[in-house]
UniProtKB/TrEMBL annotation:
Region of interest (Disordered), ranges: 318-342
Protein keywords: Activator, ATP-binding, DNA-binding, Nucleotide-binding, Transcription, Transcription regulation, Two-component regulatory system
Protein name (Swiss-Prot/TrEMBL): Sigma-54-dependent Fis family transcriptional regulator
Domain Sigma-54 factor interaction: 355-567
GO molecular function: ATP binding; sequence-specific DNA binding
CDD domains the UniProt entry points to: AAA
Signal sequence annotation: none
Length: 686
């Protein structure tokens, strides 16, 4: 029986320097055999060190962290496909935060095997040097103390910073991890946010814990149709959010729950099967849909019965393997209300996109990271004549190049070592009759672009390993934050494929260009925190700061910050500017209002009805340029050339003159930066 839900563990209360000194002193005492004072180190870290030492691991030993073969890894990912799809909204939500903090977001299976990573490409390269990459196991038994492995052993969110890692080689990492439990208390996976130990990651643990809670909350959607599902919380404004308690009863016997529900009643997972409704609440279940106040041993709560179960039904026995006991996969759901809402111009574009999709015309969605491209794509699907069929989504940038082909095209039995015995039909065939959404198509390898073009022309798919071609019928929607015209010019994207997918192009506006941003902040906060008397609120200064910030990560970044504020807020608290993350709080007003000097994506205009064949040089962008890298005077200058030169100079200075790094900070290709620099040199530079 799983242990009771336990609180998160973090050492963030210590200052960075003090924490490092204390941990190094504790390491010296531990590895010399001297006792370590209880207050010198977080207890889960000390327990983990003790377990590692008992296993014979040495702090300087390098374990053989060999990745699985492509076939073995494909089989493991396939086994956890339902988990991967269920976690995708959280991976995407954390993506912008990870890139901004030079970090990566990681999803693992219950054993600690890394299934997916998204985030900073620079840090991903550095993390790969210590084998923090897909296909590698980070269990505590194999790698020593680390957030992934230790959180799985401790069954609680854990943060491991720098020298707290048992292996010295892993001291370059700062990691926060939160396990994901199914409604029966079994571990089904884990979310981790990892970055360089040299950079403070103040909210990492709160972010992954909140994300894991969102995943667990969605596991109840459609999973218990024949049971009574109760939602409750002391504050009724939390009903319907991931912080509500959820209990599932079968003939008045408790059979499933989420962690908040158990915590609100002071219970552990051993209450499943042992407690009845009358043991926990006074009175009866009540009527379905009715919201009422009910007394518990810990005080009154607001309760709503979601559905009335049928009597005398049985669920899977608890001795069954965890993977078999997971709730049935839920069909793809649209994102939660906390996300982009379309203005009038975008609504018109959406209407046109739906009509063209129904006429068989592919749609390309362009826009910066976080503006809501997938939300727009799902609305095309929902509002069109294919809404009752599948919506198959794949992020071309998130899939390893060695696996993307099998994910899209599928494979026959025996196509490669480790392939499933029954084969896999692939996302093209899963989308048959519905909509196929290829996100970040600009990152699709060239070798696959020709195969995709052939599928679009012939409307047939040939699985890996041979077999007969299979006819497919799907509507195609693609998206990219990259300028695909520039990618064609650079030779990294096929021109014929571009013209095939970009027959109708919509460019979504950036958050900073919207008119009434303060009203938007108010709406998102109300949806997230509720409006009850105990709901936390934002001060006028805090709202103004949020509305005025440049938000390079757009809606995704804004919603991520609001989630952090909500997770850390006390009931009824009024949050001021000091509660904001440092990068939002410290951005100068000139930068907040100005946004970035120039955008990689073309300025918003009417949606393109046909792609242009002019592949001239694009304006310089500023993808990851930090606010402090530009002088306020440069932003006030009003001359685009001055601002562009200032952006290039700031990025080059921050990158120590490294053109490749500067281009990544600006969010452009290095050839574009070289071209601008060469042009300045021909004109005399500055």
């Amino acid at each position: 029986m799983p242990a009771a839900p336990t609180p998160a563990v973090s050492t963030s209360a210590l200052s960075s320097c003090a924490a490092t000194d204390a941990v190094l002193a504790a390491r010296r005492r531990f590895f010399s055999g001297a006792p370590v004072p209880e207050d010198a180190l977080a207890q889960p870290i000390l327990r983990s060190w003790t377990r590692c030492a008992a296993r014979g691991l040495g702090p300087q030993s390098r374990s053989r962290m060999e990745p699985l073969t492509d076939g073995e890894f494909a089989a493991r990912r396939e086994r956890h496909e339902a988990l991967r799809r269920r976690c995708r909204p959280e991976l995407e939500a954390l993506h912008a935060a990870a890139r901004a903090a030079d970090s990566i977001v990681i999803l693992t299976d219950p054993s600690g095997l890394v299934l997916d990573t998204v985030g900073s490409a620079d840090f991903a390269d550095r993390a790969a040097k210590v084998a923090l990459r897909p296909g590698v196991s980070w269990s505590e038994a194999e790698t020593g103390t680390n957030a992934i492995g230790t959180a799985l052993v401790e069954r609680r969110p854990v943060e491991v910073r720098g020298a707290e890692h048992y292996a010295e080689a892993n001291g370059i990492l700062s990691c926060a991890a939160a396990p994901i439990h199914d409604p029966f208390g079994e571990l089904v996976g884990l979310l981790d946010l990892s970055g360089p130990a040299s950079v403070p990651h103040l909210h990492a643990l709160a972010l992954v814990e909140l994300a894991a809670g969102q995943v667990e909350h969605r596991m109840f959607e459609g999973a218990f149709p024949d049971h009574s599902l109760v939602r409750f919380h002391a504050d009724p404004s939390f009903l319907g959010t991931a912080r509500e308690g959820i209990l599932v009863f079968e003939d008045y016997r408790l059979v499933a729950a989420n962690r908040p529900g158990l915590a609100l009643l002071g219970l552990g997972w051993d209450a499943l099967g042992a407690k009845r409704f009358g043991d926990l609440f006074e009175g009866s279940l009540g009527k379905a849909g009715e919201e009422r106040r009910v007394r518990t041993r810990r005080g009154d709560v607001a309760m709503r019965l979601e559905r009335q179960g049928l009597p005398v039904r049985t669920i899977a026995p608890r001795s069954a393997p965890a993977v078999e006991r997971q709730p049935a996969p839920v069909p793809a759901q649209p994102p939660a209300p906390t996300g982009p809402r379309f203005d009038a111009a975008t609504e018109r574009d959406l209407g046109r996109a739906v009509r063209l999709m129904e006429a068989g015309v592919p749609v390309l969605i362009q826009g910066e990271t976080g503006v809501g491209k997938e939300v727009f794509a799902r609305q095309i699907h929902r509002r069109g004549n294919r809404g009752a069929k599948a919506f198959a989504a794949v992020n071309c940038a998130a899939l390893p190049e060695g696996l993307i082909e099998s994910e899209l095209f599928g494979y026959e039995e025996g196509a490669f070592t480790g392939a499933r015995r029954a084969g896999f039909k692939g996302l093209f065939r899963e989308a048959d009759g519905g909509v196929l959404f290829l996100d970040e198509i600009g990152d699709m390898p060239l070798s696959l672009q020709s195969r995709l073009l052939r599928v679009l022309q012939e409307r047939e798919v040939t699985p890996l390993g041979g077999g007969r071609p299979v006819a497919v019928d799907f509507a195609l929607v693609c998206a990219s934050h990259r300028d695909l015209k520039q990618r064609v010019e650079e030779g990294s994207f096929r021109a014929d494929l571009y013209f095939r997918i970009a027959q109708y192009t919509v460019t979504l506006p950036a958050l900073r260009t919207l008119a009434d941003r303060e009203a938007l902040v108010d709406r998102l906060w109300a949806e997230l925190a509720g409006t009850g008397p105990a709901a936390p609120s934002l001060s006028a200064e805090c709202r103004a700061a949020l509305a005025g910030h440049g938000w390079p990560g757009n809606f995704r970044q804004l919603v991520g910050v609001l989630r952090v504020l909500h997770a850390l807020a006390e009931p009824g608290e009024i949050l001021g500017v000091d509660a904001l993350p440092a990068d939002v709080r410290s951005a100068p007003l000139e930068w907040r209002g100005a946004g970035r000097p120039a955008e990689i994506m073309p300025a918003r205009a009417e949606a393109d009805t046909a792609p242009s064949q002019d592949f001239g040089a694009r304006d310089l962008g500023a993808g990851d340029l930090r606010a402090g890298d530009l002088r306020a005077g440069d932003l006030r200058a009003g001359d685009l050339g001055t601002v562009t030169r200032a952006a290039m100079d700031a990025a080059l200075a921050a990158s120590g003159g490294n053109v490749s790094q500067a281009a990544r900070r600006l969010g452009i290709h290095r050839s574009t930066l070289h071209r601008h620099l060469a042009g300045r040199g021909a004109r005399g530079g500055h």
